[in-house]
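Memo to structure team: turn this sequence into structure tokens by end of day. - J.P.
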Amino acid sequence: MTRPPTAAQRRVIEAADPVTGRLKGTEAQLAALVKRGLAFRHPRPPHDHFLTPAGHRIREAPPEPVAAVEAPAGAETGVFAARVGGEESADAGPARIREVHSAWQGLLELRRMTNPDGDADRPCGWERTHLVQAAALALEAAGHRPAGAEGGGYRVRATPQPEAVAVREPDPGALRACAATLEKAGWQVGEHTEPRTGVRYVLASPRRA
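Reply from structure team:
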């Protein structure tokens, strides 16, 4: 998303059910929110629309000043992104902690709404198409420290294998803790060793059942 939602879209978001995130609005409004990644259409009848984790975050964020609505494309809009490790800025203050908690709760709700059996302990379709972000969110929400520009902390990266990410952490104990967190979050994990360097890493993929 390159721009914040319009005033009309924000009103639809703010009127969502506080528990389920269910939305009410015109077909055009709901379709626009889906296109922006702020809502999804439930695959089962009656095909209601619900907020995604990004939509939940916008609903819980304070209203933006009018001037921000006119911000040019590419300006900082405050869209949430899980830290995969290696970011130059890694503020871990109270505001960031609240953002991560809100995003994680939104993801659990997305699991309940989109998994056929309503299971919130198993990754959903969104996570399978956003593997790195999903794994990083699970780690950050559990309190693990992402690597900063200077190193130290976890790094989540894509791999050539389908539906698998690699998690690296220089501290062996912290690496095992990351593996335990992902396993608890519904991922299948296994520790591996780089053949050339001997460095240990975790390979993780979303559990299907």
